[in-house]
Amino acid sequence: MKKSAIKILALSLTALTVFPNTAFAAKQNGSASKQATLEEIVPPAPTTVNTSSNEIYSKETPVTKTSQTGKYLGKFITTGYCDSTPDKLKKTASGVYPKKNHTVSADWSVLPNGSKIRIGNSDIVYTVEDTGVYGNWVDIFYDTPEIAHSHGEQYLDIYLVE
C-alpha cells in the first residue's frame, strides 16, 4: 500500500509540473485571474490503477475550454435608442451612420470607440460608435422607436470581443 500512495503523490506532483496552467495550479499559486470566469474546467477522468503491475495512470488530462463570447466585463445597464428621423439618419459621435444589429453607444472611458462587444447570450457582435451614456451602460441602436422602447432597461452581461 505504501508504494501505491507514493506513486499517487508522485503522479500528482508530476501533473502540476507538466500542466502548470490548469485552474488547480493557478489556484495553488494564487495566480487565478478574472479571465478564469470565462473558462470551464473539465475535470480529469478518475485515476485508474492497473492491479497486475501496480501502475497508476489517468485516461485523460485536465482540459480548459475558453468561452467564445470574449472577456467578461460585467453586468451593464442596457437600453435601446433610435434616431427620431429614421429616413434621415444622423451620424454617430464617431462620424458613421448607425446600423441596427451593429451600433451601440457607450461611455468611451469604459468602452472606447471601436470596441467590439457581445451583449448577453446574443451572437451579434456590436461596435461602440456613439456616446451619450455614462459608466457601465450600453445603449443599443434599433431602427424603430417601438423596438427601442420595447428593449426597456435590462441588466445584461457584456463581453469584450478581442
Radius of gyration: 24 Å
Relevant CATH superfamily of the largest domain: RlpA-like domain
Query: Could you say what the CATH topology of the largest domain is called?
Result: Barwin-like endoglucanases
Overall geometric form: globular
| CATH architecture call of the largest domain | Beta Barrel
Q: Number of folding domains? A: 2
Main beta sheet: 6 strands, mixed, barrel
In the sheet with the most strands, the strands line up as 5-9-6-8-7-10
The succession of helices and strands, N to C, reads HHEEEEEEEEEHE
Q: Given this structure, which CATH class of the largest domain is correct?
A: Mainly Beta
Q: What structural category arises from helix and sheet content?
A: alpha+beta
Counted by DSSP, the helix tally is: 3
Content of β-strand: 25-35%
Helix content: 10-25%
Give the helix/strand layout:
Layout: H1 2-18, H2 23-29, E1 39-42, E2 47-50, E3 55-58, E4 63-66, E5 71-81, E6 103-106, E7 116-119, E8 125-130, E9 137-141, H3 145-151, E10 154-160
Parallel strand pairs: 5-9, 6-8
Antiparallel strand pairs: 1-4, 2-3, 5-10, 6-9, 7-8, 7-10
Keywords: Signal
Signal peptide: 1-25
Organism: Johnsonella ignava ATCC 51276
